[in-house]
Amino acid sequence: MSRTHYFEELEAVRQDLVEMGQEALALFDDVLQAFTEPAPDALQKARILESEIDLRQKLIRDRCLRLITLQAPVARDALLITGVLDAIADFGLIGGLCCDIVSLLTALPHRPTASIMAQLSDLTRKVRGILGTAIDMWQGFEPNPAIRSHEAEIKADSTRLSDKLSHLTTGPLDTSIYVDLMMICRHLERILRHAFCVADQAIGAAPLKQAIQA
Fold first, then answer.
1. If DSSP codes are grouped into helix, strand and coil, which group holds residue 40?
2. Which of 107, 98, 106, 83 is nearest to 51 (CA)?
3. Angle at 192 between CA 159 and CA 210, to 5 degrees
4. Distance between CA 199 and CA 214 in Å, rounded?
5. Whose CA is closest to 192, among 141, 137, 123, 142?
6. 192: which DSSP letter?
7. What is the CA radius of gyration of the chain?
8. Contact 29, 128 (CB under 8 A)
9. Which of 44, 109, 115, 197 is surrounded by the most beta carbons within 10 Å?
10. Average model confidence (pLDDT) for the chain?
11. Longest dimension (CA), the chain
12. C-beta of residue 69 within 8 angstroms of C-beta of residue 25
C-alpha cells in the first residue's frame, strides 16, 4: 500500500468515525424526544439505531486492524488509529446507554412532576452539547480543550438532581419511578464521561491533520 493510499484510508476511517458519532447523536436526540413526548415506536426505533451503531463499530474496527496489519503504522499514525478504536468503543457504549434511557422513559407508569422533568431535560441537553462538540472535533479535526470547562457545572447539576431523586425514594407512596429516574441520571453521567473521552481522543489525533489532508 502506497503512503498516499494509506493516508486516504486513514481519512476514510476518520469519516466513518464521524458518521458513527452522528448516528449516536441521532439516538441521543431520541432520548430528548422521549422526555417530552415519547412516540409509541420510540424504543423500537432506538434499538434499530443501536444495531446500526454496533454494525458500524465492527466495520471501522476491522478497517483499522487491516491498516495496522498492512502498513505497520509509525507512532504518529498509530495514535490516530488507536484514538479511532477507543472512540468507536465509546460511541458503542453511548448507543447502548441511550437505548436503555429510552426503554426506562417509555416504561414509566406516569410522568414525574414538571420540575423534575425540566431538570432532567436540562441535564440531557447539556450532555448532548458536549457529545455534539466532541463529534465536531473529529469532523473538523480542530481540538477544543475548552470543552472540559463545562465538566464541573454539568456534574454538579447531576449530583443535585440525583440527591433530590434519592430523597424522593423515601416517601410513603410508590417510589419506583424515582429509582428509574436515578438510573437515567447515572446513564447520563456515563454518557458524559464517554463524550469527554471522545473529545480527548480527537485532541490526541489532531497532530495528524496536516499529513492526512495534505
1. coil
2. 98
3. 150
4. 23
5. 123
6. H
7. 19
8. yes
9. 197
10. 87
11. 70
12. no
Q: Is 73 exposed, middle or buried (0-12, 13-18, 19+ CB in 10 A)?
A: middle
Contact 106, 38 (CB under 8 A): yes
Q: What is the DSSP string of 74-130?
A: -HHHHHHHHHHHHHHHHHHHHHHHHHHHHHHHHT-SS---HHHHHHHHHHHHHHHHH
Residues 153-166 pLDDT 10s? 999 999 999 999 99
Beta-carbon neighbour count of residue 123 at 10 Å? Answer: 21
Query: Hunting for cell 491533520 — which residue is that?
Result: 209
b/e map of 156-176 (b: 16 or more CB within 10 Å)? ebbeebbebbeebeeeeeeee
Cα–Cα distance measured from residue 37 to residue 54, given in angstroms and rounded to the nearest whole number: 26
Gap between the Cα atoms of 133 and 199, Å rounded:
8
Q: What is the pLDDT of residue 70?
A: 73
Angle at 10 between CA 146 and CA 204, to 5 degrees: 25
Q: Name 161's Cβ contacts closer than 8 Å, sequence gap at least 6.
A: 116, 119, 120, 123, 185
Sorting pLDDT into bands at 50, 70 and 90, what band is 1? low
CB 59 within 8 A of CB 130: no
Q: What is the pTM of this model?
A: 0.90
Indicate the range of 66-75, 154-163, 191-200 predicted with least confidence: 66-75
Helix (H, G, I), strand (E, B) or coil at 174: coil
